[in-house]
């Protein structure tokens, strides 16, 4: 059963975990955000220390498989916890939530060699992972344009090509890369995933890439005759498209929960400012347009939360949740963008500077409309499925479950 209130959808133990995460974010993470936002060794040292503290408190990797220390099995139960992790832009990294997707993908599809060399250190917090799909000479939403070549060579692979806008690559211990393993074939048969250690000869970082004037760990990568053993193949040979779809479903859902948590924090900041001494001096609580900003911000968050719960319920049941996940991703991204913008409007000029966290949140929020699939791509995909469902029967529209169960592509 899907509850309307996200906090009541979890069992008491899950609610307790969410409350403990919230307290840790408030007391240990938020006070240090200005340091964590810096692109330097001090930020990484502090982040590592906070992650170690989270592990010592049993708050690390809560959505990992149970065999790897996870405490939450169902995505639906993880959502309220993920929201609290996401109340700070840096929370998902500190609690291991950012790595949950890689942990689950490697656990499901990795060889014994991948498990021992990459998965177990990642789950223990001793390694950092990255994912490489986007390329400078391809279209991110069209897998057929991926150009990174992985050619068979003896009992292994040789990689040549480039990737860009790859998060955490400079400090990653390994990268899961999407590569073309058949030169002339449709993407359903041509792509594979391989796991590459970043100390492999021939791999290098060409440059750091700014996001709206701020460095936040995005990089362009070069693969120059990088050689990998055969057992570094993830899943089935030429099965990359299926893995990409599975990864996108779960990754978009986890990210959406983190974004909703950050949107809720923006609303909290907005409400606190309105009711502060300065806010009352400006009579903000009495202004109808300020009340409207609060209403539409809250409405966006609640709507996104409900859509994400529907998506998680389908994924937990083993059903095709592509349509619901895509809608939840868009809803969460829009809720975050709206919440950050409205909060800045209430704070005025102060919201534009580093006196509040809102300027950094606003930069991050804008990127979410492109990350994990641009809005236009997902809207096009969902809209096509809706209309295809009606077109299946000219006399009677297809029911919602039939629409949600139809197959879709990434493009």
TrEMBL record:
Q: What cofactor is needed?
A: FAD
Q: Could you tell me which residue ranges the Acyl-CoA dehydrogenase/oxidase N-terminal domain spans? A: 12-126
Q: Name one GO cellular component term.
A: cytoplasm
This entry's Gene Ontology molecular function terms read:
acyl-CoA dehydrogenase activity; flavin adenine dinucleotide binding
Biological process per Gene Ontology, one example term: fatty acid beta-oxidation using acyl-CoA dehydrogenase
Which residues belong to the signal peptide in this entry? none
Q: Which InterPro entries does the entry link to?
A: Acyl-CoA_dehydrogenase (IPR050741), Acyl-CoA_Oxase/DH_mid-dom (IPR006091), Acyl-CoA_Oxase/DH_mid-dom_sf (IPR046373), AcylCo_DH-like_C (IPR036250), AcylCo_DH/oxidase_C (IPR009075), AcylCoA_DH/ox_N (IPR013786), AcylCoA_DH/ox_N_sf (IPR037069), AcylCoA_DH/oxidase_NM_dom_sf (IPR009100)
Entry keyword annotation includes Metal-binding: no
- Supply the SUPFAM superfamilies for this chain: Acyl-CoA dehydrogenase C-terminal domain-like, Acyl-CoA dehydrogenase NM domain-like
Domain called Acyl-CoA oxidase/dehydrogenase middle: residue spans: 130-226
What keywords is this UniProt entry annotated with?
Answer: FAD, Flavoprotein, Oxidoreductase
Q: Pinpoint the Acyl-CoA dehydrogenase/oxidase C-terminal domain residues.
A: 239-387
Tell me its family. Belongs to the acyl-CoA dehydrogenase family.
Question: What is the protein's name according to its record?
Answer: Acyl-CoA dehydrogenase
Species annotation: Hahella chejuensis (strain KCTC 2396)
């Amino acid at each position: 059963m899907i509850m309307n209130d996200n906090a009541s959808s979890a069992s008491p133990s899950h609610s307790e975990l969410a409350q403990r995460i919230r307290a840790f974010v408030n007391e240990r993470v938020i006070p240090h955000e200005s340091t964590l936002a810096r692109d330097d060794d001090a930020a990484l040292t502090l982040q590592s220390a906070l992650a170690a503290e989270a592990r010592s408190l049993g708050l690390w990797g809560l959505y990992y498989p149970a065999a790897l220390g996870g405490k939450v099995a169902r995505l639906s139960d993880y959502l309220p916890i993920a929201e609290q992790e996401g109340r700070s832009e840096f929370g998902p990294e500190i609690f291991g939530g950012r790595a949950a997707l890689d942990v689950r993908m490697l656990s499901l599809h990795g060889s014994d060699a991948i498990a021992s060399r990459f998965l177990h250190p990642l789950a223990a917090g001793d390694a950092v992972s990255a994912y490489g799909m986007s390329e400078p000479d391809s279209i991110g939403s069209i897998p057929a344009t991926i150009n990174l070549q992985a050619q068979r060579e003896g009992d292994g692979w040789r990689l040549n090509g480039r990737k860009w806008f790859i998060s955490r690559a400079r400090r990653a211990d390994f990268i899961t890369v999407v590569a073309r393993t058949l030169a002339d074939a449709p993407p359903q048969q041509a792509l594979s995933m391989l796991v590459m250690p970043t100390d492999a000869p021939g791999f290098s970082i060409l440059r750091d890439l700014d996001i709206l004037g701020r460095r936040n760990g995005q990089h362009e990568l070069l693969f120059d005759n990088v050689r990998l053993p055969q057992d570094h193949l993830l899943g089935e040979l030429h099965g990359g498209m299926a893995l990409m779809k599975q990864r996108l479903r779960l990754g978009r859902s986890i990210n959406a929960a983190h974004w909703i948590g950050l949107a809720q924090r923006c609303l909290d900041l907005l409400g606190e400012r309105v009711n502060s001494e300065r806010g009352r001096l400006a009579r903000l609580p009495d202004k109808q347009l300020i009340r409207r900003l609060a209403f539409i911000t809250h409405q966006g968050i609640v709507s996104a939360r409900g859509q994400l719960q529907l998506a998680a319920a389908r994924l937990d049941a083993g059903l095709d949740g592509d349509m619901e996940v895509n809608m939840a991703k868009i809803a969460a991204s829009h809720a975050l963008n709206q919440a950050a913008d409205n909060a800045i409007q209430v704070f005025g000029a102060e919201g534009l500077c580093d006196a509040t966290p809102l300027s950094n949140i606003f930069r991050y929020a804008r990127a979410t409309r492109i990350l994990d699939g641009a809005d236009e791509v997902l809207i096009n995909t969902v809209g096509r499925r809706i209309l295809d469902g009606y077109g299946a029967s000219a006399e009677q529209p297809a029911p919602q479950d039939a629409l949600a169960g139809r197959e879709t592509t990434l493009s």
